Amino acid sequence: MNFFKKNKPAPSEAQYKHTQQDSQTRRQQDKNSHREQAEGKAVKKRNLFSVLGFIALGVLGATFYLADSVPLVATGQEAASALNTGVSETLGAGVRLLENDGKQLPGRDYNVTFRSGNDAGDEQEKHSVELLVWDYAAVDGDYVQILKDHSALSDAFMIKHAPQRFQLNVTPGVPVTLQIKGVRDGGGGITYAAMFHYKQHHITFYNQAPEAGSNTYTVNLIP
Fold it and tell me: Distance (Å, rounded) from C-alpha 108 to C-alpha 205?
């Protein structure tokens, strides 16, 4: 029996250095792995915050857009007077008077007269009168067309809450016949507002155009 146990030879210096390098490599790999995991989580968080930010901006933008495109129904004495008479010289462009087309005003023809303030020698000079047309109730697919002296001034277009603008050249003392023709009724009647604006003055008519018929406005500038 061998009572003497043979001792295992001690590792050489090269083996010791190799073992140390392996250990350091593993530790570095572990650190890199932890760092990559942490960076990946940070990137995911940033991406999530970016997506949430874009969603919030989209919701906010849609809110402002809808608030701007669908004006509130006007109330007060001036609005009530406009609903009663169909005419206003104080309410601004784009004002909405009704929630829907159920109680619209009847269709009428009107004379529109402004003072030009011209001297006698300037009577033949043409002046620009601006026409603004919009839906003063619900936007429901009503279409109209503008005609000047029985000739088309515009193609048929859908009236909305945002006013459409047109320029009319008018010579003082020479009346212009303007017609707003009902092209298509989206439901409940073709309700529209027509504002005539000249210099610092304006007047608005809240009207209803018959489908395939028209309302006539005789526009005149007097010296």
Answer: 9
Q: State how far the alpha carbon of 134 is from the alpha carbons of 38, 70, 104, 166, 220, in Å.
A: 58, 12, 14, 12, 22
Buried b (16+ CB within 10 A) or exposed e, 148-167: beeeebbeeeebbbebbeee
Alpha-carbon gap, residue 13 to 144, rounded angstroms: 98
Q: What is the mean pLDDT of each run of 10 residues along the chain (223 residues)?
A: 53 58 67 69 62 53 46 93 96 95 86 82 78 96 97 98 97 96 95 97 97 97 91
Q: Are residues 129 and 196 in contact, defined by beta-carbon separation less than 8 angstroms?
A: yes
Q: Pairing relation of β-strands 157-158 and 201-209?
A: unpaired
